[in-house]
Design a protein that fits this description.
Layout lengths: L1 H20 L4 E6 L6 H14 L3 E5 L4 H13 L3 E7 L42 H15 L6 E5 L13 H4 L16 H11 L13 H24 L3 E6 L7 H5 L10 E4 L10 H14 L7 E5 L20 H13 L4 E5 L6 H11 L7
Parallel strand pairs: 1-2, 1-8, 2-3, 3-4, 4-5, 5-6, 7-8
Helix pairs in contact: 2-3, 4-7, 9-10, 10-11
The chain binds zinc ion (ZN).
Length: about 375
């Protein structure tokens, strides 16, 4: 009798566990809170939880008090909460000194000349100790908030030395190779440190894009900042993860100098935004496969999906920022991700999801996809 009871309990336990597992882990990038009240945030988070979102990568500036307020509400609604704060872009931040900003190959600073003229492209130099100290302290204050589960790094990279192909038309560029005006960082410290390390005066080199050590020097600058932040966050028993470019080898390293397979963080959220690369859903699977293979499946990879906000207008809209996955592609994008080794997915953004998207999403996240 006792044995039967134990057996019954065991079966119950197995079925409960597998019941949980049948839902794909889903995160969402979300910004706020704007003027939303606590009860409005509560309603928003409750709704997302019901729709199948397990955790938020939430962007709300840099103020710990704001994160504390929002994280508390998110936790009450059963959501994981990661503070999503850009790392090497510090726009409108009065704490940043002009000399901390990155300098391109023709001597221009992103302080007053943001790359591509884009307002959110004021990049700081990851080789400046003051920048790294500032970032460590800023993230440390956020990681200290009890309800915050983790720190989510973004713009943890150099400016795009080569833009994704789908963005060329928007900026009127053909970026078939590296051009000096988009290549960073040539500040005095970077140039001097590289010379001291390798003996090469990079400013005297005709085509710096051919110097492998110069590339590696900059991969290492980003990696060392990430690993320093990881050490600090882990010392507080919190998680740290990052939004990364797809790859790492085929894209992230080449266009934004992210050698993310060397980063000591807990999870990766590659922005597998297929429309930016003029690719379809199969490519999303290829990118997931490359990521998990490169890191030997040692950490979870959540496949970042870019959702089209107004599907009926996509064909006629020239701005790639308004493109993204159509409802008819969403299921295939999730399937491709999961069959190619992703641990789950991350939506950019829930606000862009249509009612049709949510119906398809709900069904897809309860499907058991088998890793191929
Ligand atoms: Zn520099």
């Amino acid at each position: 009798m006792n044995k039967l009871l134990t057996f019954g309990l065991l079966i119950l336990l197995i079925s409960c566990t597998s019941g949980n597992k049948s839902s794909i882990p889903c995160y969402a990038w979300l910004g706020g809170p704007g003027k939303a009240t606590d009860s409005e945030l509560k309603a928003e988070f409750k709704d997302l939880r019901k729709k199948g979102i397990d955790g938020l990568m939430y962007s709300a500036g840099r103020d710990p008090e704001v994160y504390s307020r929002i994280a508390k509400i998110a936790k009450e609604e059963g959501l994981e909460f990661h503070a999503w704060i850009p790392t090497l872009t510090q726009n409108n931040n009065p704490d940043m000194k002009p000399e901390w900003f990155a300098i391109n190959g023709i001597g221009e600073s992103t302080y007053d000349k943001p790359t591509f003229g884009a307002g959110h492209y004021h990049f700081v130099c990851p080789n400046r100790p003051e920048v790294c100290d500032y970032l460590e302290q800023m993230y440390s204050r956020i990681a200290d908030i009890p309800e915050v589960d983790g720190i989510h790094l973004d713009f943890i990279r150099f400016p795009d030395v080569i833009l994704a192909k789908g963005l060329w038309k928007k900026y009127g560029l053909v970026m078939d190779r590296e051009f000096p005006q988009f290549d960073y960082c040539y500040c005095d410290k970077c140039v001097a440190d590289f010379k001291a390390k390798t003996g090469i005066d990079i400013k005297a080199v005709q085509d710096p894009s051919q110097v492998e050590e110069w590339k590696q020097f900059r991969y290492d600058l980003v990696t060392s900042l990430v690993n320093r932040l990881a050490l600090m966050v882990h010392s507080k028993n919190k998680k740290i993860n990052a939004a990364v470019f797809p790859g790492p080898n085929s894209i992230a390293k080449k266009i934004v100098r992210q050698e993310w397979d060397k980063w000591d963080i807990d999870a990766f959220y590659p922005m597998n935004y297929n429309d930016f690369y003029l690719e379809g859903t199969k490519w999303i699977g290829d990118m997931c496969r490359e990521g998990v293979t490169t890191i030997n499946n040692s950490k979870p990879i959540y496949s970042g999906l870019f959702i089209c906000p107004e599907p009926e207008k996509k064909a006629g809209d020239p701005d790639p920022e308004n493109h993204g996955l159509l409802p008819g592609e969403l299921e295939e994008a999730i399937k491709q991700s999961m069959e190619n080794g992703a641990a789950g997915i991350c939506l950019f953004t829930p606000e862009r999801m249509t009612a049709e998207d949510w119906t398809i999403f709900k069904k897809a996240i309860h499907t058991s996809y088998v890793k191929q």
